[in-house]
Each structure stands twice: as C-alpha cells, then as structure tokens.
Amino acid sequence: MQKDTSTPFAFIHVPKCAGTSLRSVFFDWYGAGVIPHYYHEPTGGAPKPITLDYAIKHLKEHGSCCIFGHFNCLRGFGVRHNISFVEMFFTILREPFSQFVSEFKYKAARSRTQLNFESYLQECSPNYLNHFPNIVSFENYKEEIEKFEFIGIYEYFEESVEFMSRLLGKEAPGKMLKRQNVGPSDSFDYSKYRLEFEELNSLECEAYNYARKIFEEKVL
C-alpha cells in the first residue's frame, strides 16, 4: 500500500480545498524536502518551471522532493508547463459549489468594490479542474481522476489525511487539524443558487462525485 517516494512527486493544492492546512502537515513530514509552488499575487510573479535535474538534486540533498502548490494551466503554470516529469500526484477535492462559494467569499473580502454573487456565478468558472495535470473533459474525467495516487475529500478531511499518511509511510497528526485560511462567514443564502451552479458546472460536479465514490470505496 505504501507509495514509493524515491522520485519527485506533487501535491496539487486546489484552491479552498484545505490545502493550506495540509501544507503544514507536509512540511512536518518532509521539511526542506517540500518545494512550494505558488503564484505571488502581490507582485504578479508566477511560479517558475522546475527542471528534473533540479528536482533530483533537491531529492538527494533533502531525502525527498514533494512539489506542493497551485498548478493552474489557464494561467500558464500548470503541471505540464512547470513539472512535466512528475508522474505521482495527490490532492484533496471539495464539493464544487461549496468550494466556489468559499472562493467568492475570499475574493469579496479582499475586493475594493462590492462583489455580487449572482453576477460572479454567471461570469466566473470554478477554479477547480484547471489544476489537474491534464485538460479534463466529460470524455476523460474518470480516466484523469484514476491517474492520481490518491484524491482525498474535504468533507472527510481527517480521514483523508490519515489515509494519506499511511500511503506515504508517515505518522498521522496526533490531534484534529485546525483548518487554516478559512473564509469569512456571512448571512447571505447561497444555497438558492446551488442548482444553477450545478447546471452551469456539471463537469466539476461529475468529477467530484466520481472522486468521492472512489474515496468512499477505498477509505470508509
């Protein structure tokens, strides 16, 4: 069951899917073996491509090489752009509507102008499947999900982390993890837009449901 991490591997941090919380766990597990891969929003600095030679050197120096971060192919720093040599991937997915609402709240809290959720729903696509290693479609989403070594589920966060720790031969956190980077709460009723979201973004919903089905069969 334990995975071979003697070669570089990656954790794909899909935004608003508990990746910030899990990043601290990976630093506890691998220390300097973790290579962060994030867009620097204040300066507009995209993460630079990582070469295989650099990753191998990093692995030899630190005993491991886990590339952890965002890989947004729509912004030019996807997996195939920046770490094309990596073949082993982990991630955690969240129910898409919940993830979309969380990202809206995150952006609204930082916007200089007031954002309207109804307009946001019509104008913006979920920042979700564009982080996968390859382009995802209705024709290939099952195949792409099955390529992952493991996809955890946000709604079963502790179970996901515990199972991942066994796959990686690491010790699970001894206490329940505190979620980091949690969006602000408000009284707005987002639920009335759920059906509209699911109609507009059925691919994301289908992909999540399939990943969750595999997770439940494997873990629960």
From TrEMBL:
GO terms for cellular component: membrane. It comes from the Bacteria. InterPro entries: P-loop_NTPase (IPR027417), Sulfotransferase (IPR005331). One of its GO terms (molecular function) is sulfotransferase activity. Pfam families: Sulfotransfer_2. This is Sulfotransferase family protein. It comes from Aliiglaciecola lipolytica E3.
